[in-house]
Amino acid sequence: MPQSPCLLIGAPVDSGKRTRGCLMGPDAFRTAGLAEQLTSLGRVTRDLGNVARAPLRDLPGPAHLHALSDTVAWTEALIPAARDAMAEGFPIFMGGDHSLSLGTVAGVAEHAQAQGRPQFVLWLDAHSDFHTPLTTGSGNLHGTPVGYVTGQPGFDAFPSLSSPIPQDRLCLLGLRSVDAEEREALERTDIALTDMRTIDEHGIAAPLREFLARVDAANGMLHVSLDVDFLDPSIAPAVGTTVPGGATFREAHLVMEILHDSGLVSSLDLVELNPFLDDRGRTASLMVDLTASLMGRRVFDRPTRSFAA
Fold it and tell me: What does the alpha-carbon distance between residue 285 and residue 33 come to, in Å, rounded to a whole number?
């Protein structure tokens, strides 16, 4: 992995769903020692602070959508923030709920287009997030980023995409909560889909390596979007959308170690951490540990940690 500076960018987005608390995520990652862990691995690390939301505007949209204007404003702010950060180093976007990826993925894709390289996305999540403002039943826009960045209809209120992600450049890994409408829509796409049953039967490494081989063959840039609910809630409780049966501690670290070995990752989202729901900071610490694995720390280098009171 190129030794470009790690740029920590807070995105305290809390508008993508109704359960509040993700706005505290960036500070929780800072408190859990993300910068210190990266520095200990020899990475130059700069904390750029938090992105400021763009001004709010009254926007038309389906009545059931939650906080549409807020989410659009965050997207408008995060697209240029992500695009500009890519020119300076390796951005790590500390969320914030998953609606922040509406902006981060669109922004990194703009940078890749300017470089003449294809943008790929690895989505580590229990959910496919392939809804649109027209199809979401809950009205929660954290379930729409994959729909937006692939150019699905219904996002008229959002910034127009200059660099939509072709479907065959996405991999959704760890799926285990996909509603019927999303499943039907996904089956008509070329998105690589790997659910937890496939992982149970065949392991997590094979589908990941297959996707990475495609990224490598295309000389692509790879954005990784890591949702807390990719992990099993027994090890990562600090999320408002807990789904049993997620990735284990070792599966998650293996994913990160394989990603590091590939040298392909160029940007990272850390999303859906809700410190209000955490247990003595254990989820924030695990997400920091996983980021360290992505940056090269091996399992035998990991210090023993006690969560005793």
Answer: 8
Residues in Cβ contact with 244 at an 8 Å cutoff, skipping those fewer than 6 apart: 232, 233
Q: Identify whether 98 is a catalytic site residue.
A: yes
Please give the Cα distance from 10 to 305 (Å, whole number): 26
- What CATH number is given for 6-301 in this structure? 3.40.800.10
Lowest mean pLDDT among 19-28, 178-187, 252-261, 299-308: 299-308
pTM over 0.70: yes
Cα–Cα distance list, 75 to 79, 145, 192 (Å): 6, 10, 25
Looking at residue 241, its pLDDT comes to 80
Given 111, 131, 142, 253, which residue is catalytic? Answer: 142
Q: What's residue 304's pLDDT? A: 58
Q: Give me the catalytic one of 125, 232, 251, 257.
A: 125
What proportion of the chain, given as a percentage, has pLDDT over 90?
92
Query: Cβ of 32: how many Cβ atoms within 10 Å?
Result: 23
Question: Is 127 marked active-site?
Answer: yes
For residue 14, indicate whether it is catalytic: no
**Is 66 considered catalytic here?**
no
Spans of all domains in the chain? 6-301
Model confidence pLDDT, tens digit, residues 32-52 = 999 999 999 999 999 999 999
Active site residue 229: yes
Is 272 among the residues known to form the active site?
Answer: yes
Q: Is 227 a catalytic residue?
A: yes
Q: Please tell me which residue in 182, 227, 269, 289 is annotated as part of the active site.
A: 227
